[in-house]
Specification:
Layout: H1 2-9, H2 14-59, H3 67-71, E1 73-83, E2 89-99, E3 105-113, E4 119-129, E5 132-137, E6 144-149, E7 152-160, E8 163-171, E9 177-186, E10 189-200
Antiparallel strand pairs: 1-2, 1-10, 2-3, 3-4, 4-5, 5-6, 6-7, 7-8, 8-9, 9-10
Amino acid sequence: MDRAISKRSVIPTPNAISDRFAATMRVRSEQVSRVKSILKWLRFALLTAAMVACSLATAQTPVEFTPSAGFGGESTGLGTLKFVFRAPRAFQVTSHGAEQGDGTFRLDQTITFAGEPPQSRFWIMTRTAPHRYAATLSDAAGPVEATVSGSRLSLRYRVKGPVYMHQELVLSADGRTIDNVGVVRLLGVPIGRLQETITRKAPAVASDDPADPGR
């Protein structure tokens, strides 16, 4: 009799079964909740990683220096010109650049040195080959050598007699500023240095930039 009672006593009651079922469901619900939480975190992490990757890719996209990309529209330059044994001379340049009907690019500039009257000059640039331009400068003593390498424009021209100017202009990724560094040489010896920051007032739209035949 005791054995029969013992065997009957281990048979779970309906309430016990219900409690166990409820406990099991709670455990599974918690597990599902944790899995959902982990998946949500993973989705967020992947989305964040994708956004960062896109930002880095955009930041690393090379900028092609073209006349329109660098000088289209209105711009202002502030800088100094320093010759050996002389004090630096501050200057300001206001510029306006635009594509011409014949496919050339014209840049009109007004240069003002501190304490001196304004001086006007202009550039004419024509693409002759991939990343290369033929250029003229109204106050230069000869043709201008102009080559492009990514966001960098290199200019070299004779100022007067054996005096040459070599400029390196680097266009920022947003197309709004240019760092301009120039070195003046006499018979190959550096005698002067130009430093200028050019700021665009109204960057040209992308459609204004001519297609690069080298691409």
